[in-house]
Amino acid sequence: MNFLNEVAQHYPDAISFAAGRPCEDFLDLAAVHRHLDLFAAHLREKFGGDEQRVRGTLLQYGRTKGVIHELVARHLESDEGILVDPEAVVVTVGCQEALFLTLRALRRDDRDVLLAVMPTYVGAAGAAHLADMPVLPVAQSDAGIDIDDLVAVARRAREQGLRPRACYIVPDFGNPSGISLDLDVRKRLLEAAYDIGLLLLEDNPYGLFDAGPAGNTPLPTLKSLDTGRGVVYLGSFAKTGNPGARVGYVVADQRVGTGADGGTELLADRLGELKSMLTVNTSPIAQAVIGGKLLEHDGSLRTANERERAVYRRNLRLVLDGLARRFPADRRPHVTWNRPSGGFFVVCALPFVAGDDLLAVCAREYGVLWTPMHHFYAGDEARREIRLSVSHLTPAEIETGLDRLARFVAERDT
Amino acid sequence: MNFLNEVAQHYPDAISFAAGRPCEDFLDLAAVHRHLDLFAAHLREKFGGDEQRVRGTLLQYGRTKGVIHELVARHLESDEGILVDPEAVVVTVGCQEALFLTLRALRRDDRDVLLAVMPTYVGAAGAAHLADMPVLPVAQSDAGIDIDDLVAVARRAREQGLRPRACYIVPDFGNPSGISLDLDVRKRLLEAAYDIGLLLLEDNPYGLFDAGPAGNTPLPTLKSLDTGRGVVYLGSFAKTGNPGARVGYVVADQRVGTGADGGTELLADRLGELKSMLTVNTSPIAQAVIGGKLLEHDGSLRTANERERAVYRRNLRLVLDGLARRFPADRRPHVTWNRPSGGFFVVCALPFVAGDDLLAVCAREYGVLWTPMHHFYAGDEARREIRLSVSHLTPAEIETGLDRLARFVAERDT
Fold it and tell me: CA geometry: angle at B221 spanning B219 and B224, to 5°?
């Protein structure tokens, strides 16, 4: 994504529908101080006032799998209906480290491959690249994943002597697609994964940001439906906690072989062993920032993010309504887009191929940025689709940005 | 090191010469708050009071190579005489991530190997394992490294079709050996590395903890002597800053090929690209904790650690004097040890082989822990040597611990 960063740096005044950064309006350093103190007070109570243990937990080398694992488990129960043994939680340096550790643990040799719904999050492709694991694309379909294709890709891979180890998917408001899997698809996906013996890597950074009406019941995560330990659940606090803490986690309650002796261990423990060689442990100070926020809201990040949820809901509506006003179906330029029910992203199909070259033109001449969708595919061939991020713009920026986008599209479509 | 952790957990009341943790006496949460605020004030001044930029730098996704790179460069000039472009600094999640990133960048295929002075730090061996890079041992010798052996190992590897990419070494108060390279050896090592086209990975976690008399001039780092960009310098703030921040860095000012197009880039930029797939960026909150401490002491961690330096100096003296009193040269049991001039570690040779089994006996029956040296070698065969860490014990614990060790050795040596 270096090219995209360069464009963004080159045109700092352009309105950016490109970056998927969380809303900054409610971040402040005072909260960091407060959350640190809250977590320290929690430790003080837990350790019966033993200041040396409090200090040792917060400021010394510490437990490889983390020190907020119990709070993470409580949050998962409260917000996601996921019941998990805290020992199966590994707190990581953002979800990115969780992804890498999981793939590195699953990879034994060159025959191991990852399946991923294409288009896919660039971080997943990056982690797979770093772990030397080829990625086999699975078709997306309007349902979020083409399950028949998943089964076919896995079968073909096995016929070629490969070992499909897992399929990576974002079931809620996917990045980049914005698509969510409906309940029936979730259940069928799980059954298919059990049938063909494939782990599902469920990445859920946006699940709390459903834009439905108040009181709307969000769809259950794959992990909460997983009765067969077929799902490794990847979590991030970058959008719901604090992006500056760089804290994520993985729930890995599977049993895996330890190697020569024929024994088994928890996958989470295997990930911990790998983590000890990668980053040793996640900063307990950074963990405390998240831990304090979890404590402040009694484990519920849904509650903690009411204001953020309202911003994202408003922005998604403004972008969808704004697109509809600017691109009526019966007039040129002919632009179509999907209608996600939450999350950060909308995908538009333009009437022409929109690659990096056109992005540069659009940034320079029209002052608006977006992400060419081809970056989320294995190949490099430019496509007609672009991704719009709605997460960190003001209403005025959205309106001006869409005006500029509409002018750009109209003037190219001649 | 799981076995060692288990022993330590099993005998929490044993006196531990095993863990190499830094002294905790001067760590406190108030300093974390203060350092955060100091760094925020620094950003406020730098950004002319633009609170949004301050907040964005501290609490949002951020620059992959880090936000305290300029302060790190100032510290390196002030404390180590190393002049470096801040762009060549990558701030990492502890030195462990710096190690992994460097090895992962150097590895192109199965022919790439790492050389390392044996015995070697387990974290270096672990990072190499994770990066799928075999480690070829280089003999240590009393000088810290047998340079003739280094040259011979590299030559033999090349004859076998392998590509020795770098040699890992801790030139100051090595872990586990405690040995430091003298100035002449440093210069000869650099010349040899230039001659045979091998990078040196200089890891320097203990360099500030020389135990010489006040006003003693420490030996120059390899990097400060490096006129040929032959040294990648690995730094840690775990001992000099705050272990709970998990912040380290790597100085990588070499030019490397970018691949197909025949261009070159700074190795630091290549490491940044890999980091974007591994941990995205190091927590800016954690970086701020270190940045604030650097600001508080005008970039000098030598000054910031005067109290810690005094503790380590005292402890090293107590252990060396205490060994001398308990194991006179002319009497049994015959125990020998080296006499490091700083750092955290002393290596003792016992009159018998001291492996994990004897450590368990010693922990259970004598209440004292140490590290069997075989853990720092590639093989698994137990040896007579043990490593004693002096870093986080009180004088009373050292005396009692050495009494227990002496009783253990005397009772086994019959």
Answer: 115
pLDDT at residue A1, as a whole number? 58
The pairing of beta strand B163-169 with beta strand B199-203? parallel
For A:31-60, CB contacts with B below 8 A are 32-33, 36-37, 40, 52, 55-56, 58-60
CATH class of B29-304: alpha beta
- The whole-number average pLDDT for the span B281-307 is 97
If you average pLDDT over residues B238-247, what whole number do you get? 96
- Render pLDDT for A195-247 as a digit per residue (tens, 0 to 9): 999 999 999 999 999 987 666 678 999 999 999 999 999 999 999 999 999 99
Give the rounded percent of residues in chain A with a pLDDT score beyond 70: 98
Domain boundaries, chain A: 2-20+305-412, 29-301
**Which whole-number Å values give the CA distances from B109 to A148, A288, A385, B112, in the listed order?**
36, 40, 36, 6
User: Which fold does the domain A29-301 belong to in CATH?
Assistant: Aspartate Aminotransferase; domain 2 (3.40.640)
- Extract the tokens encoding A115: 């399946």
Task: Give mean pLDDT, residues A54-77.
Answer: 96
Please say whether the beta carbons of A346 and A337 come within 8 A: yes
Taking CA B203 as the corner, what is the angle to CA B199 and CA B208, rounded to the nearest 5 degrees?
Answer: 140
Confidence check on the interface: ipTM exceeds 0.95, yes or no: yes
Query: Mean pLDDT across the stretch B39-45?
Result: 98
Q: For the domain B2-20+305-412, what is the CATH code?
A: 3.90.1150.10
Strand ranges in A317-356 using DSSP code E only, listed in sequence order: 336-337, 345-349
Query: A286, A221, A295, A301: which is closest to A22 by C-alpha?
Result: A301
Q: Which residues of A touch B278 (CB under 8 A)?
A: 96-97, 100, 127, 130, 278
